[in-house]
Amino acid sequence: MNEQNEIKNEVIIYEGEELPRISWFDSVINIFMAPAETFKRIAVEPKVLAPLIISLLASLISVTVMIPKMISMVPQTVEKMLASGQLPPNRPEEFWIKLIERQIYFGTYFNVIFMFFLSLLFISLIIFLYFKFTDRDATFKHVFSLVTYAGLINGLHSILVSILLVATKFKGINTLEDFRGKTLGFQLLMNADNLETTFQKLTYVLLSLNSPFYIWNLIVMAIGVKYVFRTTYGKASVPVIITWVIFSGITVLFTMIAINSGKF
Question: In the chain, where are the structural domains located?
Fold first, then answer.
């Protein structure tokens, strides 16, 4: 009897298939090479801690690499803002430099952590509600687990962007605004210094959003939905496409606001 219990504890049953238990490390690695193997196990035993920590650390490391360069640009940024009247002249330049440096240190880390969890929860909620309304079994823990594991793709992207920036000595980064939306995306095919029309600017931003890594993330997420909810790839793709449409719409909205306010 004890031997039978030990055998049961060493395997996971997914749709009648006996799967050997794997370590958290193997579950993470499989996301990049064999995501179905991880998602089959998530469907039975959802886990989030390992991918959550790894993805968050990747984002924080990426920001940590960029912050020294951002800080070095603060004096010239303050000088331009004082000259253009964007900052009131009733305070000395050193005051504004220290203030913006603190904002960069604390604000950047806060924004990264806040947006990291907000995006995970938002995407998980969309997928969760979609399957609730289509009368399928859905637990938020399962959804959050698959979205978190799929997010490892974005973590890899963040690390590669940081490596590229350091390797190129931050080539093309001349102002603080140049750090926004820095991705290994299709926008690299366009000349960022020659964006004159609204259409060109929107195209640049959307190409930046829909990078190969983001597309890879969406594909892996659809695979996860397919196995976790035991459905077809076609049906699994629907909520993933909905999240893509929503995020693209939000990006277009904020880009239009930036263009109309003269900040882009």
Answer: 33-260
Report the predicted TM-score, pTM, of the whole model to 2 decimal places: 0.85
For the chain, residues with pLDDT lower than 70 are 1-9, 135-138, 176, 178, 180-195, 262-264
Measured between alpha carbons, how far is 131 from 239 in angstroms, rounded to an integer? 8
pLDDT the model gives residue 2? 38
Beta partners for 12?
19
Provide the residue count of the chain: 264
d(CA 103, CA 239): 36
CB-side neighbour CA atoms (13 Å) of 6: 3
Q: Are 156 and 32 in contact (CB under 8 A)?
A: yes
Burial status of residue 99 (CB atoms within 10 A of its CB: 0-12, 13-18, 19 or more): middle
Q: What is the pLDDT of residue 149?
A: 96
**Which amino acid does the sequence have at 88?**
P
CA atoms of 1 and 7, how far apart (whole Å) = 10
